[in-house]
Amino acid sequence: MPMLAALLAQGPPLTALTALTAQEALSGVFGSISLASWIFLLVPQLVENYKQGSAEGISLAFLTVWFIGDISNLVGSLWAGLVPTVTALAIYFCFADLILISQCLYYNFKNAQKSRRRSTRGSLRIEAAEEPLLGRRDSSNLGLPGSHRRKSSATSRRRRASSLPSIVERSYEEETKVWVKNSLSIIGVCIVGAAGWAIAWSTGVWQPTPLEDDGSGTELALGAQILGYASAVCYLGARIPQIIKNQRDRSCEGLSLLFFILSLLGNATYGAGILFHSTEKEYFLTNLPWLIGSLGTMVEDVTIFFQFRAFGIGEQTAAIV
Q: What is the pLDDT of residue 276?
């Protein structure tokens, strides 16, 4: 997860409150919204896994590569000697990753055990019921051959035809509710981020970095730069296993749409915060690995949005067929 606080921390802060330019204010607001998005990012998926009692929808490879990216981010921030706030956020991100990965491993193990027990009980039932069933005939089958099957088939078709409009209507209502809930959540995150920046600015906690010290005077250690690029590559490649899994299963069941919306918001506002702060060549090149990672993950998030639209969550599609 990129951390805009690291970028805003470069260069010495101004010693007194000065009049903000619109560009500086937008940079600060976008940066704060980005941080709010990262902080709340994993919560929707944790809640979704808890409600489903399963983590089959999310790829462990996705989470593992993401976690490696956050570890690289943490080590890079320590190596570069960034401010304690940045390091604390990096530790928080790694801790949150571990919670989500642990939850997924727990549900996968628990459901695998249940599946084994269910399979064993089912086999025993079939063996116990097989012999009586072979010697028993149902009186309802008396009559013309195939008449009961035709009657059942016709009844099934009528029920399916009568229930189809209600299924479609219910699916549309549920989809509308999901989008309304997600929209309100995004608005809430934006309000929290903007309010956080306003409070930080009014109390003097946050101040704009002077443009003459926007990174050109701060040399990052080579190792920290390498780790920055490594984290960008991890963030960029993390979603590929998830996209492949969705395509293979033709379903996004078990995934939280809000999780990916928050990711898109965080990356978009992160990039905007950088570009509004400065477009100087030195500053731009210093932050290029994080910009590449953000832009790439935005493209991949949009791909997952298309998969949500095409596949849904599996159950609704199966019910309509």
A: 83
* Residue spans of alpha helices (H) in 203-221: none
Give the pLDDT confidence of 217-239 residue by residue, as tens digits.
456 677 787 887 888 888 889 99
The rounded distance, in Å, linking the Cα atoms of 174 and 179 is: 9
- How many other C-beta atoms lie within 10 A of the C-beta of residue 275? 17
Residue with tokens 């926007």: 214
DSSP-derived letter for residue 57 is: T
Q: Which residue has the tokens 């030195």?
A: 282
315 touches 250 (CB < 8 A): no
The pLDDT value given to residue 311 = 86
- In 141-270, where do the E strands start and end? none
Mean pLDDT check: name the lowest of 13-17, 30-34, 101-105, 257-261: 13-17
Sort residue 54 into left (φ over 0), alpha (ψ -120 to 50) or beta. Answer: beta
Tell me whether residue 75 is exposed, middle or buried, using C-beta atoms within 10 angstroms of its C-beta: 0 to 12, 13 to 18, 19 or more: middle
Do 8 and 207 contact (CB within 8 A), yes or no? no
Distance in angstroms (rounded) separating the CA atoms of residues 144 and 126 = 29
Query: Counting runs of H as helices and runs of E as strands, what totals does the chain give?
Result: 11, 0
Q: Is 110 helix (H, G, I), strand (E, B) or coil?
A: helix
Amino acid residing at 274 = I
**Residue 230 pLDDT:** 86
> C-alpha angle 270/260/22, rounded to 5°?
25
Q: State how far the Cα of 221 lies from the Cα of 216, in Å rounded to an integer.
A: 14
Cβ–Cβ under 8 Å, residues 65 and 233: no
Q: Are 272 and 199 in contact (CB under 8 A)?
A: no
**Positive or negative: CA dihedral 270, 273, 276, 282:** negative
CA dist 22 and 211 (Å) reads 14
- Domain definitions of the chain by residue range: 21-116+180-320
CB under 8 Å to 89, separation ≥6 — which residues?
3, 5, 35, 38
